Structure formats: structure tokens, C-alpha cells
Amino acid sequence: MRVDVLTIFPDYFAPLELSLIGKARTTGLLDVGVHDLRQWTHDVHRTVDDTPYGGGPGMVMRPEPWGAAFDELVPPDRPPLTGPESVPLDDRAPVLIVPTPAGQRFDQAMAHAFAGERRLIFACGRYEGIDQRVLEEAATRMRVREVSLGDYVLFGGEVAVLVMLEAVVRLLPGVIGNAESLTEESHANGLLEAPLYTKPAVWRGREVPEVLRSGDHGRIARWRRAQSLLRTAAQRPDMLASTAPETLDKHDVAT
Ligand SMILES: N#Cc1c(-c2ccc3ccn(Cc4ccncc4)c3c2)n[nH]c1N
To answer: If one looks up domain 189-254 in CATH, what number appears?
Structure first.
């Protein structure tokens, strides 16, 4: 997978050299380019923002640097449209992911969808956001996705890109050694994962549930399913709304 990140704070992405993402890059599973948007400015102050039309607080990111950056990263393969015409794009067009509080909520299903792409481009906005015409023009050659991490407000898109990139890259084949862990974790099956335990068997007077030390794999699987349903009901009842109703056997819940 090829990933390009456009930002005015490239240093935010130093962590991409670490851990599994760093390993994915060295093993060739992932190719990442981080680009300073200011390299597509031409004034002495390398200006990327201006005041909003219609008034209002803060500043808005100017369209010109973004347009020039996209021209270089994704050269138009047809004469640029000069108006608001839209063109159908097939799935060979790269996906442009624009973090914004006004976007669709990012979730595991979206992470899986992005993990299936050959190329992702992330546009990190700052200030109050990016001139909307940038997204409109980008949509003539990229599949544009406006995405939000959640219902709170950040200073810019960089942190959101780090989160989305980690969620996507860990789903790439070969990045996580034991692919089975991807099937057991929270949100993999629409539920939260069951509680986890490791040695010692007793810690500060608290024992690991006997069922997990029983060696009875069928019983352990039923217990984990029951615990997963109970935990989801307690922490995220909204997730249960989209799960088929399931009866719990009291023996399965016993520890
Ligand atoms: N994804 C995501 C986000 C953001 C986010 C993302 C990109 C930008 C660019 C600029 N800002 C600041 C801003 C913008 C608009 N209104 C207020 C502040 C951003 C916030 N905030 N909260 C999320 N879940």
C-alpha cells in the first residue's frame, strides 16, 4: 500500500518510523510519503491560510497549495474540469481521506475498506479547515472521503491521520504476525472483546477465572462469548442493536 500525507506539520508523523508501522515500511508492505504543504506555496511567507469569506472566526486554508500538491501527487489523467461537473470514478482512483469534525464517523468497517485500497492520500487540515473547493476539485480525480474520529474537536487532522493509519495498517496482511488476533479483538465481530488475563493465577488475592485454566476449549469459547455480550451490553448497548439477539446460558457465564 502507498500512503501520502499532506500536512503543514510533517514532524507529527515521526512516529510512523516506530513499531509495526515502521516494520511494515521496512518490509515493503507499506510505502509512506509525508509532504509539507508549504512546499507548494510561492510567497516569501509560505502562506497557506486566509480569512474566511462571509466572515467568522479563525482562518481557512487557501486552495492553491492543495491544488498544486494534488496536481503533483495525482496528475490529472484528463483535462481538468473548470466547473462543478462531477465524473464517475472507478476504484482505481486513489482515495483522498480528509479528517474533519464534519465527516462520517471512522470505524473498523471503514478501516477494513481503506485497508483494501492500493493507495491512500491523507489531507491534514488546520485552522478552521480547508476551502471546500479543494475537495470538490479533488473529487474529479480521487474518491474523496470526509472522515471524523468522533464528536469532539481537535486542532487539526494530523492526530486523526495517525489514528486512522494505525487502524488501517494493522489490518494489512503480514503486518500482525498472528492474524487470529484480528478476529478476536473488539469490533472485529461487532462486539467488545472478553476480559483478558495472564500469569500469575492469583494476584493480590484475585484469581484468574477457573474456566480459563480448565483447558476445556469449548467451555472457554462459550465463556468468552458470554463475557463479550455482557461487556458490550454494559459498555456499548448501541453495538448490540445491530447484533442478532442471543440467549445467555448461566453456565457459560460462570467463572
Ligand atoms: N477527524 C477529525 C476531527 C477533527 C479535526 C480534523 C481536521 C481539522 C482541521 C482543522 N481542525 C480544527 C477545527 C475544524 C473545524 N472546527 C473547529 C476546529 C480540524 C479538526 N476534530 N475532531 C475530529 N474528530
So the answer is: 1.10.1270.20
